[in-house]
Fold:
Amino acid sequence: MSARPLRWGVLGTGTIASLFVEDLRHEPGSVVTAVASRSQESARAFGDRLGVPRCHGSHDDLFADDQVDIVYVATPPATHAALGHGAIAAGKHVLIEKPFTLDAAQAVGLVDAARAAGVFLMEAMWSWHLPHIGRLRELLGTGALGDVRLVTADHGLNLPSALAARLYEPSLGGGALLDFGVYPVSLAVLAFGGKPTRITAQAVMTSTGVDRQTSVVLEYGDAQAVLTATIGADTSNRAAVSGTRGRVEIPAVWYRPNRLELTGETGETELFERPVPGVGLHVEAAEARRCIEEGLLESTQRPTAETVAVMETLDGIRTAIGLRFPSENPDRGVS
Structure:
């Protein structure tokens, strides 16, 4: 570990930003030195509540802060690309909340900019740094499951607009797919190693024009991922990866600190469980710090190519269900 802790600047003062700052107390190699919001009052209230000393009333002021090494972008999805570019241009390392961007083109633009600037860049898919997902990655890498044939996963919470207005706002990149569906889609990309060969999807839309619920079948040759995301119901929130030699099952809530059970060809079982303190968000901060200390520009646990593949898959799903955001070019192509 470096003699000096990694100094974080947080963009945004919402729920996920608060949880991240609180959870960094479990990451001794990191410290939050600054926060920025669109208003000085909001930033100061956040800083006073969570002990963040430097409070900025604009994002640009945080980019210019010499007490910040890495910027955590915790604002609505529609702002991720612009803020990510702002941080990169200022020479900061960047961790961007999921969904990484609104679409794959924006994701590729950020990756290219970060590489050109020589700064670290990662999507804040925190679950991918938890021990049980790490164990799944090992099982997939060693072929312990054989050829993966089926991935099933859902992510659903009952969040009416009165409780989560942002999720119903098209201009902010709202809807179930980007915020919730990014988890099961990421699991499919992890299990199959890339983009699907065919996408079938159906959605139930809200009156505001975003998806309340989306169901997806991703085809990978002769294998499939069957996925659902909803902001209109509390679902089972379970996941399974099934192959020709074994099956992994992850109980609710599968993307949070959890256990997994491996069932082998002959029915033998292996239970993997490793406790994680706090919420678990600090593990992504620890991974970012490790990479930066080692001079890496991206993480092997959540490489940028995987992030781009997820965004390309989400683009394909959005095309299938007719979901488009106001800020997008009407001629945007989706692969």
